[in-house]
Amino acid sequence: MLSTIYRIHFVPPFFVVTVGIRELGENTNLWKKTKLLCKIMLMVVISVWKNPSMQNLRGKVIKENWETSKTPRENVLAMGLAFSPNEAVPVKQPHREIIDMVSVEEMDLTEARVLGTVAEQRLKKQQEKRAVLNKEKALRVVSSLEREADEIQADRDSQPRAVRLPDRDVELLIYLAQRYGDDYKAMARDPKNLFQYTPKKISNLMKIYRSSGFYQVIEAIP
Asked: What are the structural domain ranges in the chain?
C-alpha cells in the first residue's frame, strides 16, 4: 500500500492518489470528478493492455509521462496511481472462528531466513513501491487528470438533464391529464393508479411529462 499520499479517490479499477504524507484510512470520500476520472483511466488502461506500443493510448497526460523502459506496473506507480485496488485498499476479511484446513507449503529454514519475517517482507515491499514513485511526475499527472475531470463535469452540469419516464407512467399521465386536468388528489384516487402514487408524486411526474417533447406532440393532436 502506498503510504505517501495526501488523499485517495476510490475509482475502480484504479485508485488515483496525490503525493504527500498521510496514513490511509478506511473511510474515503467519494467525489463526482473521481468517477469521471475513473472512466478516463479505464480507457487508458484498456488501451495499454490491448496495445503495449501505446499507438491507441487515449490519455495524453499518461502518454507524455509513459516510459517504454518500464513495465506497466512501474509506470503506473511512478505516476502516483495504484496498479491494483486490492493493494491500495485491501478487502477486510471477516473474522473466522475456525481456521480452514489448507495445505501448508514447506520451506527450508535457510530460505526462510533469507526472506525474513512477514513484517520484514511487507516493509520491503512498501519500500520498493515508494522507490518507484516519482513525486513530481505524480503531482503533475494527477493534477492534469483531475483538471480534465473537472472540465468534463462542468460541461455536463451546463447541459440540461433529459429525464425519461417509463412507458407505463407516460400512458398513465396521459390518461390522468385528460380526465382530471390538474386535480392531483383525484388522480391519486383513480383505480388505474395501480402503483398508489401520491398527489405530490403525480405532480412531480406531470411536471417532467409536460416538459418533454412527447407532451408537445400529444397536445398538437386535435
From this structure: 5-93+101-158, 167-220
Top pLDDT among 133 and 58 is at 133
Please report how many Cα atoms fall inside a 13 Å half-sphere around the Cα of residue 49, on the Cβ side: 8
Q: Where are the beta strands (DSSP E) in the chain?
A: 5-11, 14-19, 81-82
Cell of 150: 473537472
How far is the C-alpha of 138 from the C-alpha of 185, rounded, in Å?
Answer: 59
pTM for this one?
Answer: 0.36
Q: Report, in this order, helix, strand and coil percent for the chain, each rounded to 5.
A: 55, 10, 35
**Alpha-carbon distance 214 to 64, whole Å?**
47
Neighbours of 28 (CB within 10 A): 13
Q: Which three cell numbers stand for residue 147?
A: 483538471
Q: Phi first, then psi: give them for residue 35, nearest 5 degrees.
A: -70, -40
**How far apart (Å, rounded) are the C-alpha atoms in residues 200 and 30?**
31
